[in-house]
Amino acid sequence: MLRTDDPDVAAAALAEGHLAALPTETVYGLGARADLPRAVARVYAAKGRPADHPLIVHLLDPYALLAWGVELPEWAGALAEVFWPGPMTLVVRRSDRAGDFVTGGQDTVALRVPAHPGMRAVLRALGERVGDDAVGIAAPSANRFGRVSPTTADHVLAELGDVLGADDVLLDGGPSAVGVESTIVDCTGDRPVILRPGRVATRGVEAVTGLTCGERSAVRAPGTLASHYAPRARVQLVDAVDLEAAVGGLGLPAARTGVLALAEIATPPGVVRLAAPADVTEYAQVLYAALREADALELEAVVAVPPDDAGIGEAVADRLRRAAH
Ligand code: TXA
Ligand code: MG
Predict the structure, then answer these.
(1) How far is the CA of 279 from the centre of ligand 1 (A)?
(2) What pLDDT, in 10s, does the model give residues 64-90?
(3) Where are the domains of the chain?
(4) Same CATH fold assignment for domains 2-209 and 234-324
(5) Ligand nearest to the CA of 30
(6) Which residues does ligand 1 sit against, CB inside 6 Å?
(7) Cis peptide leading into 85, omega within 30 of 0?
């Protein structure tokens, strides 16, 4: 695999049907041209991901929504207009562009217009190379199935270095600014349903659409299983006031235990402080690196104090719950 910081090198590899691990503002993705079944099949193989788990198709221009989706409600257009480019994915009814090999056989497709400048440069260069300005890059997070998403190029290397081929590319675009995966909004019903929380909060979706988000969706989103985003270490969630007691109650040597909490929460004696983010935005940025660090240090347990459920705290708490499952 070739590691580069030149988006055109990644676009050239994709154009030829190879894979490219790509930076986005949320997490790194493992990309293939969304119109090439064999390239997309390699993404599933590299991740060890079940074939019925659909992929997100990344697009350069919000108007490409009209090429990939059909029967769009007006409020889906409003979400695209306000939040794209950005950390939000819309699930819509698919057009003929979206093959079964991308959607897991569903009649919907997940679409996202990312904001990361490197990723956007790849989409632009790929569109020029293949002569299609609505070209899509199908990209799941660039981790092995069920594991923690990568937020740096080094993380991608650790996850997929030994399964990518000589012609595949890793584009280094620096650490991901958001740190947790995009908000997924199901746009196939009469109101939005949040399938996965992210940087775009429920309140923002409701403000833009003028609708109250629904609770239940007819759409299947397999990657949102209860156990996901999990490190090898056992993860336990506690309130700040219970932190010290919880660490003691583990019955482990303190040095085998990691703690993850906002900076304002003190570290119990002897434990490994994995991260001390100043606020919830930073909590999201450092979350996955901290879980990786726990595994690198071969810790047995991580005790985490989730942030409040407001804004991106919603997404951080969600990922911590899944890591703890
Ligand atoms: O931030 C992100 O969304 C990152 C970056 C790389 O864009 N991507 C990402 O992809 O997290 P992935 O494959 O790890 O998670 C995509 C989620 C899965 O839970 C999948 O089930 C859901 O999106 N999904 C994809 N297509 C869908 C569809 N048509 N209907 C319902 N859910 C879908
Ligand atoms: Mg993923």
Answers:
(1) 26
(2) 999 999 999 999 999 999 999 999 999
(3) 2-209, 234-324
(4) no
(5) 1
(6) 24, 26-27, 29, 53-56, 89, 91, 103, 106, 108-110, 112, 139-141, 181-182, 184, 195, 219, 221-224
(7) yes
Which tokens is 157 given?
């290397």
Which residue pairs from 78-83 have beta carbons closer than 8 angstroms and sit at least 24 positions apart in sequence?
78/208, 78/209, 79/185, 79/187, 79/192, 79/205, 79/208, 79/209, 80/113, 82/208, 83/200, 83/204, 83/208
111 alpha carbon – ligand 1 mean position (Å): 9
At residue 82, the 3 state secondary structure works out as: helix
Superfamily of domain 2-209: DHBP synthase (3.90.870.10)
β-pair partners for 69: 94
CATH 3.40.50.11030 is right for the domain spanning 234-324:
yes
pLDDT in tens, 244-286: 999 999 999 999 999 999 999 999 999 999 999 999 999 999 9
Helix, strand, coil percent content, the chain, rounded in steps of 5: 35, 20, 45
Q: pLDDT tens, 112-163? A: 999 999 999 999 999 999 999 999 999 999 999 988 999 999 999 999 999 9
pLDDT for position 146 = 84
